[in-house]
Inverse folding.
């Protein structure tokens, strides 16, 4: 399975108002492993950047003045995501901007060339209803170091989102780890390797174990002794 973790930064909130993409980043995974392939582009939007947007990502029009236009990177971008499943936090926002840029060029929308889209914000709301599910909140919940994220940035956010997505979906794949599977280094925005926090192992308390036994006893009584969790293993034939 080829998946692309994707994020964009923009001049504002609504592509229908003429706002444009100013940064796009993509990280490739195959079978939930990072391949080392990525695409990262700053883009000249050919328009002003809203003050509110600039306060979020810190990217100025002066910085983007000599950067390529979206038309210059469209082919490379489409080739990179072609046939892959996209993983995006708040996917309608990014997909809306990407399709607006492609429509200006007379190109097909993203959905016609990629193999589906996973919205991690929607997934997080289903997993954690009623809780904050921003990228920062999810990093805190899954103990992923986001200390380098003082401003939003597409490349750093895709790296964090990739770790969040793998943490959220860890139970969906085999727990077997091949011996040659090298762990992905945790690299900050400054290029330095950061030490990951050790995984927290939470064991059941004596009170929780007692409640568990009580629940099993109730199930066994209700099922008239047919509770599978209390059934003794059959003795092997001699």
């Amino acid at each position: 399975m080829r998946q692309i973790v994707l994020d964009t930064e923009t001049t504002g909130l609504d592509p229908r108002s003429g706002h444009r993409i100013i940064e796009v980043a993509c990280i490739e995974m195959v079978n939930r492993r990072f391949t080392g392939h990525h695409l990262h582009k700053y883009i000249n939007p050919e328009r002003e950047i809203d003050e509110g947007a600039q306060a979020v990502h810190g990217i100025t029009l002066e910085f983007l003045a000599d950067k390529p236009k979206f038309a210059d990177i469209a082919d490379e971008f489409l080739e990179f995501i072609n046939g892959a499943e996209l993983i995006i936090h708040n996917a309608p926002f990014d997909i809306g901007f990407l399709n607006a840029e492609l429509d200006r060029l007379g190109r097909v929308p993203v959905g016609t060339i990629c193999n589906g889209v996973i919205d991690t914000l929607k997934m997080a709301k289903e997993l954690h209803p009623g809780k904050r599910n921003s990228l920062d909140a999810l990093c805190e919940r899954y103990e992923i170091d986001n200390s380098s994220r003082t401003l939003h940035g597409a490349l750093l956010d895709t790296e964090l989102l990739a770790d969040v997505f793998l943490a959220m979906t860890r139970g969906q794949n085999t727990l077997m780890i091949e011996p040659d599977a090298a762990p992905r280094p945790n690299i900050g925005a400054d290029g330095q390797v950061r030490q990951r926090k050790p995984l927290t192992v939470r064991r059941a308390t004596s009170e929780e174990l007692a409640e568990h036994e009580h629940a099993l006893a109730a199930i066994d009584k209700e099922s008239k002794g047919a509770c599978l969790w209390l059934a003794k293993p059959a003795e092997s034939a001699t």
Observations:
- The mean pLDDT is 85.
- Strands lie at 2-10, 21-30, 33-42, 85-88, 117-119.
- Residues 140 and 146 are 8 Å apart (CA to CA).
- Helices lie at 51-57, 61-64, 70-81, 91-104, 120-127, 135-141, 154-168, 206-222.
